[in-house]
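Entry type: protein chain
Record version: 2
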Amino acid sequence: QVQLVESGGGSVQAGGSLRLSCAVFGSISYNYCMGWFRQAPGKERERVATVRLGGTRIDYADSVKGRFTVSQGNAKSTLYLQMNSLKPEDTAMYYCAAHPWLGGCSGVADFRYSGQGTQVTVSS
């Protein structure tokens, strides 16, 4: 069983920055995909970025490329999302997710595990 707990959300003005953290609890290995997703009110869940735990290849959504950066802690226990140059359209609930790695991460439609989310609000 894997549990994910997000933190770091808040309210910022456009152009500001936030750093989200995802604490990972439970039995997880490097054969796992990790991802950040977001969902705004009335919209579908959107993939922000995915990475294989311990890996270096990170796939970002076009909407966040060049502004958001995913990084991992030294152990398998923390995933970060650094968000710079925030825009009002980045306002959403942000979720951390995990899924067993089966050869790729960017093609996984539904991640098995997801946290409760942390709210990010960007004002203009």
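Comment: DSSP finds no helices and eleven strands in the chain.
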